[in-house]
Amino acid sequence: MSDSRTRVDEALRRLAVLGERLPSAARPSLARDSLDLVHALLDEIQRATASVPVEQAVQALYRRLVPRWHFPMLNDDERNGGYEAALAEHVRPHHTVLDIGAGSGVLAVIAARAGARRVMTCEMSATIADVAREVVAADPHGEVIEVIAKRSDELTPDDMGGRADVIVSETFDCALLGESLLAIMRDARERLLAPGGTLIPSAARITAMLIESDAVFRLNRVDTTRGIDVSAFNRFSTASYFPVRLFRHPYEVLSERADVVDLDFAHDDLLPAVTHHELIVTKPGVCHGVAFWFDVTLSSTAHLENSPENPTSNWHQAVQLFDKPLPVETGDRVAIAVAYDDTSISFSRSGPRISHVRARSADQNGEAGG
Ligand SMILES: C[S@@+](CC[C@H](N)C(=O)[O-])C[C@H]1O[C@@H](n2cnc3c(N)ncnc32)[C@H](O)[C@@H]1O
Is 198 domain-assigned? Predict the structure, then answer.
C-alpha cells in the first residue's frame, strides 16, 4: 500500500473513532465541550466528504479538540520532574493512585513506576484518552494502569474498585484556577479519596504585583494605526487575565509583591471567595494592571511556579489589565479585590486608593485623593 494511502486509511480510522464518540459527546458527561465538539465534527466531516482531503479534515479536528499547550507542557521537564519527585515521595506499593486528567498518560505511568499497585487515570476528552491508552499500553508499567474516558466528577469509587490512596492532578493554567482545579479537588477529596489519603498538589499560593507596560497593555488594546482609528476593536479586548511571558516585553514593577490567595487543598473549603489587598507602590509610574503567578506545593520538596524569575516554565505569567491606566506614586497603596470561583480568577481595583503622597498634595491643591 502506498504511503499516502496508509495515511489516509489511518486518518479514516481516526475519523471513525471520533464519529463513534458523537453519541457520547451529546451526553451530559461531556457537557463542557459537547456542543462545540459536535458542531466541529459535523462541519469537518461535511467538508471532508465534499472536497477537503480526509487527512486535512482530521488535522482540523485535532486542532479544535486538542489544545497546542499539551506539547510545551509535556516538554516541561521541571513540571514532569516535580510530579515524579512528589509521586516517589507519596506512593507506597499497596496504593491505588487516581490521576485526574490523563492527557498523554504521563503522570499515570510515573505513578506506576513509583510502585503503585494500581493506577486509574480519567480523561474527559475521549480523543485524548485514546492516545493515553496507546502510551500506557506501550509502557512496561502499563499493565497496572487503566484509562477511563470520563470526567472526574462522573467517576465513582466503583469505577476504580474503591477510593484512591493518592489523587494526583495537573489541571491548572497560568492563573492556577482556570481549568477548574478548585471544583476538581473539592469533588475528588470528598468522593474519591480514601480517608487519610494524599492529594497532589497539596497547596497553592497566588502572588501578584502592579506593573507598568505599554507593550503588555497593547497586547489587548489598540487606538490608531497608520492614522486610522481602530479603537472600535477594543470591544474584543479581554476583560479577564491572559498569559504573558513578561520577560519578552519591556515592563516596570511598580509595587511590592503580595500573596493574594493561599489554598490548602485538603483542609480549605475551596469555595468561591473574594479577598481584599493593598499593593504598596514602590516606584512612580503608570500602572497598567496586575501580573500574577502561582506556587504549587506537590510534596515536601517539590514545588512548581511560574513567577517572572522562571522563564522556562511552560506556564506564562498571568496579566489582568485595569480598565484605565492608573498613575501611581511611591507609597501609594492600591486597593485590589481578588475574586475567584470554580473556573476563574479576576482582579479589580476596589474602593478608593489610599495615597499618602496624593493626600498631602490634595490638601495643597484641592484635588480629590484617589
Ligand atoms: C493540563 S493537562 C495534563 C495532562 C497530564 N496529566 C500531564 O500531566 O501531562 C489536563 C488534562 O486534564 C483533562 N481534564 C481537565 N479536567 C478534567 C476532569 N475534571 N476530568 C477528567 N479530565 C480532565 C484535560 O482534557 C487535559 O487533557
Answer: no
